[in-house]
């Protein structure tokens, strides 16, 4: 694994710290309170860099989760994805998954302070990236840590007249340290559930999800949703510890991931539902009209 720079932010009002690695795709690798870790580490950073195995807080860009095929069209532009080329990775069923920026080294830090970090990526400057997503733009991440809140704002700024589909997301893997998973609860808002088939792709059906609080004892999730209201809060709690994930703006879809036998929960903010890039169910950023999406994680 190449030598990487780790940038650790310090909350000015508490012992909370957050660590990001720009050279490994701007992934968040730690969110810790006085050294006690709240991010699921899974296989670790090396597996993310070498094989795209997610951990911490990775960005999933330009699409989150799976696509149902290797071709898609946007405004008459037909795109063919080639697994193994152009940073395209596939899942065990051959579906392109999580975009092309896993561990991508091209992020440039443009501003940094003790508790804030801004990095940009000129997506249109790399022909390899454009081969999979031919819509030139600049991608900006602004990360701040204050008052026990980690906030991540992502801005898409088109650099040509081509509109840029907004289908990205993040996958914060969260854990409640020192508390057995069977003693955790997950609270979700009311939204719309999008059932998936046996390879994890939406069936096209939908059903109401009333939300509320559920024990994670014996409970697993790999569920997709849309109609997530702006400002929706998802809460993972156990013992005297609590983590709130707030979809502040720009994230009308979600994925919940709570695998069996793993002490973590993924609460994934998504700019569009799974497979939206092929189905056309997404918003776009246009030239002269950048779009910003923002979510936050509060540790109590």
Automatic annotation (TrEMBL):
CDD domains attached here?
Answer: Aldose_epim (cd01081)
Q: Which Gene3D superfamilies does the annotation name?
A: 2.70.98.10
The signal peptide here is: none
Lineage of source species = Bacteria, Bacillati, Actinomycetota, Actinomycetes, Mycobacteriales
The Gene Ontology biological process terms listed for this entry are: carbohydrate metabolic process
Q: What is the organism of origin for this protein?
A: Mycolicibacterium sediminis
Q: What is this protein called?
A: Aldose 1-epimerase
Q: Which Pfam families match?
A: Aldose_epim (PF01263)
What GO molecular function terms would the record report?
Answer: carbohydrate binding; isomerase activity
